[in-house]
Amino acid sequence: MADKLNILAMCGSLRKASFNRMLMNASIALAPEGMSIKEGPSYLMPIYNADDQNSTGFPPESDALAAAIRASDGLLIVSPEYNWSIPAGLKNAIDWLSRYKEVPFAGKPVAIQSAAGGLLGGSRMQYHLRQSLTPLDAYLFGRPEVIVTFAPQKFKEGKLEDQGANDLIKQQLAGFEKFARKMVGK
Ligand SMILES: Cc1cc2nc3c(=O)[nH]c(=O)nc-3n(C[C@H](O)[C@H](O)[C@H](O)COP(=O)(O)O)c2cc1C
Questions:
Q1: CA angle 49, 39, 66 (to 5 degrees)
Q2: Which residues does ligand 1 sit against, CB inside 6 Å?
Q3: What is the pLDDT of residue 2?
Q4: pLDDT per position as a tens digit, 14-42
Q5: Alpha carbon 134 to its chain's center
Q6: Cα(148)–Cα(160) distance, integer angstroms
Q7: How far apart are the CA of 140 and the centre of ligand 1, in A?
């Protein structure tokens, strides 16, 4: 049996009753045997300012997240879409992380999921995230995509009750495991 892949999860919503957090938790529970998914350290940090970086360096939150990403075999990012794009907190962390000489995302396989109340399920955020992580040399997993539409109808008491969505998560994670093993040679 191959060594387990250690995947770091990040949730782009800070809301207590976040559907994306429920989706992330569903994925943690549905991870294939060869994969362990754990939530990473907080990505909350001061708004990026190059002057701050030049005067006081990286914030400790950024160093901790960078170290956790470097120690992982890949990432699962689960996030809502805010105004057709990436929520600011998550994007701000990506901006800080992009400033290290050795960018922590480089060479890391990344899978993306989203949940939203509407018909598009956060899909536009997914494409903006792909765009932002591409210049950072992340390896973006293609398909199946996990896009949970009409989220309030699919989650009950904190659990993802939709069979189709649960099946899709399993398919995505199985495909992601194969992809990530190829990319990191594990
Ligand atoms: C600031 C803000 C912007 C939003 N913009 C979008 C959007 O562009 N597209 C969308 O599908 N939903 C949008 N929504 C609705 C979110 O999809 C919905 O609130 C979702 O439940 C947020 O995810 P969460 O439950 O994980 O917090 C927005 C919500 C907020 C608070």
A1: 35
A2: 13, 15, 18-20, 80-84, 116-118, 120, 122, 151
A3: 82
A4: 999 999 999 999 999 999 999 999 999 99
A5: 14
A6: 10
A7: 23
